[in-house]
Amino acid sequence: MGNIRINQQRLWDSLMQMGDTGQLVDHGYTRVALTKADKAGRDLFSEWCSQAGCSLSIDTMGNLFFRRAGKNDELPPVITGSHLDTQPTGGKFDGVYGVLAGLEVIRTLNEHDIVTDHPLEIVVWTNEEGARFAPAMIGSGVWADIFTLDYGLSRADKEGITIEQALIDTGFKGDKACRVKPVKAAFELHIEQGPILEQEEKQIGIVSGAQGINWLTLKLFGKPVHAGPTPMTGRIDPFMALPGILHRLYTIVKECDDWARVTFGDISAQPGSRNTVPEVVTLAIDIRHPEDATLSAIASQMREIIAEECAAAGIDYELDDDWLSPPIQFDTQCIDAVREAVNGLGYSNMDMFSGAGHDAVQIARVVPTSMIFIPCEGGISHNPEEFASSDDIAAGANVLLQSMLAMAKA
Question: How many Cβ atoms sit within 10 Å of the Cβ of residue 139?
C-alpha cells in the first residue's frame, strides 16, 4: 500500500472550487460559521462525499460525519477532518485543507479498490474558528464532553443569534447525539499557520502536542466626560491604565521562552465617541504556552500586573476567564504512524508543537489523536494572503493517506 499516492491536481482543484463557495474578501474567501457561505461549502462537500460513496450522519451540534464502510463495520473508525468555517478575513486553506484531504484519501482508495478493515470517517466540525460564536472549537468540544450541549447550542453571535438557531436556519441541526464514541485513531492535517517549517525548510511537521490557550476579557471602567472641557488631571480614563498593562505583559512573555505568546486581538471603547472619554474599555487577551506550569505562571503574573496598574491609575476593572484549553500531548501510536509514513515517503520533516488551537486538541482528550502540518507561505493564515504550494499540499495528503492505512489496516 505504500506506493499509492493521492491525485495532486484533483485535490488542488477541489480546494479552489471550495474557495468559490465563500464570500469574496479582497482576493481571499470567507465562510464564517453557519452563514449562507458556510452552508454552501457544507452542501458542496456533502455532494462530493455522496459521490464517493460515503454515508452522512449529523449530530445535534451540526458536526458532519461522512463514513466509508470497512470490511468489519463494527470496528471503531479511523477518522480525519477539520473544519470548513473561516475567519472573516479568511483564505482558502485553513481548515478546509484537512477536510478535502480526507475526501481525497477516500477517492484514492476507491480508485485502487482498497477496502480497509476499519471504517473511515471524515468529520467537519462546527464553529472551529470561534469568529462568530465564542469560544472556538465548540462543535468538537461538545463531542469531547468539554462543553455541555446546552452550553454549545446557547452560544450567541453579536446579533444575538444562537448556534442552535443558526443550525436550524441552515438545515444542519442533526438528531445524532453529540458525544464521543469509540475511535481507533484520529488525524488532522493542517497548514502550520506559522513560519517554522518554512524557515527550517521542512515539508512535514510531525506534531506531538499543542499549546495551552487561556482566553480572558478585561474591562476597564472610566467616567464618560467631554474630551474638550475636562482637564486631563480630572479624568477617570480607562486608557490610562492600559499602556502599563500592555508593556509589562509583553515584557514577561518575551522574557519567558520562545513558545510563550500573548495577543490582544480585540479592543473596544464605549460609548465609542471620538470626543468622549470612554466609560468602558474592553480588551480580549489570549495567552499560550505548551506547558501547564508556565501558562499558569503567566496568567498569575498578568493578574498582578492588572491589579497594580489599575490601582496606580485609579481605575476599577473586571477580569473574566472566558476559556482555558490546557496543553495537550498527542497519542504516541498515532504520532508513530505519521512518522513512519513520512519516512517511508521520504519527505523532510521535524517534530513540533501546534501553536494554534485545533479540533484535534479537543478530541485528543478522549480518543487517540495526532496532527500533520505542512508549510504555509510566510507563516500567514487567517488572511486572504494565506497560501500553500500544491506540492506541499499533496505531500501532506500522502502522509495522511499512509497514516490512515496503517491504523485502519487494508
Answer: 28
Tens digits of residue pLDDT in 10-35: 999 999 999 999 877 666 678 999 99
- C-alpha span between 342 and 337 (Å, rounded): 9
Q: Going by C-beta distance under 8 Å and a sequence separation of 6 or more, which residues neighbour residue 226?
A: 275, 276, 277
Q: Which residues of 371-402 are buried (b: 16+ CB within 10 A; e: fewer)?
A: bbbbbbbebbbbbbebbbeeebbbbbbbbbbb
Closest of 234, 192, 225, 223 to residue 210, by C-alpha: 192
* Separation of alpha carbons 190 and 31, rounded Å: 17
Hey, what's the cell of 136?
A: 472556538
Give me the count of residues in the chain: 410
Residue type (1 letter), 223: K
Angle at which helices 36-51 and 163-170 cross, to 10°: 60
Measure the CA–CA gap between 325 and 210, rounded to whole angstroms: 10
Give the residue carrying C-alpha cell 491536481. 9
Joined grid coordinates for residue 172: 444542519
pLDDT tens digits, 361-400:
999 999 999 999 999 999 999 888 899 999 999 999 999 9
pLDDT tens for 337-365 read 999 999 999 999 999 999 888 999 999 99
CA–CA dist 117, 112 (Å, integer): 15
Distance CA 401, CA 120 (A): 11
Do 378 and 195 contact (CB within 8 A), yes or no?
yes
Q: Find where cell 487561556 sits.
A: 214
Here the cell at position 314 is: 485609579
Is there a contact between 95 and 32 (Cβ–Cβ < 8 Å)? no
d(CA 107, CA 380): 29
Contact assessment for residue 235 and residue 222, using Cβ atoms and an 8 Å cutoff: yes
